[in-house]
Amino acid sequence: KKGSYDHFMQKEIHEQPHSLTTTMRGRLKDGGVLLGGLKEHLKTIRRCRRVVFIGCGTSYNAALAARPFVEELTGIPVTMEVASDLLDRQGPIYREDTAVFVSQSGETADTLLALDYALENGALCVGITNTVGSTLSRKTHCGVHINAGCEIGVASTKAYTSQIVAMAMMALAIGSDQISSQGRRNAIISGLTRLPSCVSEVLKLDAEMKELASSLIDSESLLVFGRGYNYATALEGALKVKEVALMHSEGMLAGEMKHGPLALVDENLPIIVIATRDACFSKQQSVIQQLLSRKGRLIVMCSKGDASAVCPNGSCRVIEVPGVADCLQPVINIIPLQLLAYHLTVLRGFDVDQPRNLAKSVTTQ
Ligand code: UD1
Ligand code: F6R
């Protein structure tokens, strides 16, 4: 079943041009979006007081990547909940809320308990899942199957990118009654149609990421700085590295750098800075300058052709990625980090598909 690949995680990373195509198949129609599973509920969602995203691990990170464009395209306030934390706090959920549950397996215990809680509180409950017939799919009022195909590697890869794309289509569908943002929606839809070919292009960085991995093999820790659309990329990249390569890694909001993390910076600690083109670009340029002035060991991810704009004197390593619509850039940017985590794991001699202590579906609390 792995075909020409050595591991499922590797196969699933390289499968993403195809899995993203199947996520979108039949759903981008006549310049608009048609999600059969949400059609009847769009009016209710448009009237809701807020959207609450709920999930665990990678699925939470996918929702975090979706938050900025859901807010932008719908105008509805979005809050984020890690499922276990919502349960621990018994946080407020109201009838006027739309609670969106994100889960690859659709069987994660914490997510399902949070679903029961939101149902009891009368919220409209929407599922985003890869598993038709799962408990999540059956218990939610409506939802979207991401159709990424079966994911076997314990580390979630192709489900993450398909979840983001499914939520982008959801945001487009909810916002489709807003005339003033038609131009923006058209640009995102054309970005979605170009996405599989951009993913094929970024996958060509495989050898470069293997080489980067070999330079990091003995590091004790790896930081990843992102902001805006790519805050989630930082968290998800770091989660991949820690869960499969068994290396300490933290994703951080670059805007928080001066409020603590800066103290860690020295010439040994590798730091990945995500600085692709979007409204936050100049802020990331200044983050890079501040890290370099403290002799930080930087690896900068930037848009194609921007190497000298992010790193004028050549003192950092640069990963150049193809550009897509800014809000879809997280789908591209996570891929080099998935490849890095994969190669780091193989080079360090650990089990890629069955990381220590982890299970594919966490059905206990
Ligand atoms: C559906 C069919 C698909 C078919 C297409 C043709 C299924 C599972 N899907 O896809 O095979 O090609 O019509 O038009 O038969 N749902 C939830 N919670 C979730 C996920 C989904 O309640 O977490 C519900 C949806 O609201 C919907 C149903 O499950 O009622 C199917 O969802 P989805 O597969 O996303 O719908 P379509 O894309 O229309
Ligand atoms: C990370 C990973 C986990 C899952 C989490 C939620 O690669 O796989 O963090 O994302 O256990 O699982 P689902 O999405 O099935 O609810």
From TrEMBL:
<keyword id="KW-0808">Transferase</keyword>
<dbReference type="GO" id="GO:0006002">
    <property type="term" value="P:fructose 6-phosphate metabolic process"/>
</dbReference>
<comment type="pathway">
    <text>Nucleotide-sugar biosynthesis; UDP-N-acetyl-alpha-D-glucosamine biosynthesis; alpha-D-glucosamine 6-phosphate from D-fructose 6-phosphate: step 1/1.</text>
</comment>
<dbReference type="GO" id="GO:0004360">
    <property type="term" value="F:glutamine-fructose-6-phosphate transaminase (isomerizing) activity"/>
</dbReference>
<keyword id="KW-0677">Repeat</keyword>
<dbReference type="GO" id="GO:0097367">
    <property type="term" value="F:carbohydrate derivative binding"/>
</dbReference>
<dbReference type="GO" id="GO:0006487">
    <property type="term" value="P:protein N-linked glycosylation"/>
</dbReference>
<keyword id="KW-0315">Glutamine amidotransferase</keyword>
<dbReference type="GO" id="GO:0046349">
    <property type="term" value="P:amino sugar biosynthetic process"/>
</dbReference>
<feature type="domain" description="SIS">
    <location>
        <begin position="212"/>
        <end position="355"/>
    </location>
</feature>
<protein>
    <recommendedName>
        <fullName>glutamine--fructose-6-phosphate transaminase (isomerizing)</fullName>
        <ecNumber>2.6.1.16</ecNumber>
    </recommendedName>
</protein>
<feature type="domain" description="SIS">
    <location>
        <begin position="41"/>
        <end position="181"/>
    </location>
</feature>
<dbReference type="GO" id="GO:0006047">
    <property type="term" value="P:UDP-N-acetylglucosamine metabolic process"/>
</dbReference>
<keyword id="KW-0032">Aminotransferase</keyword>
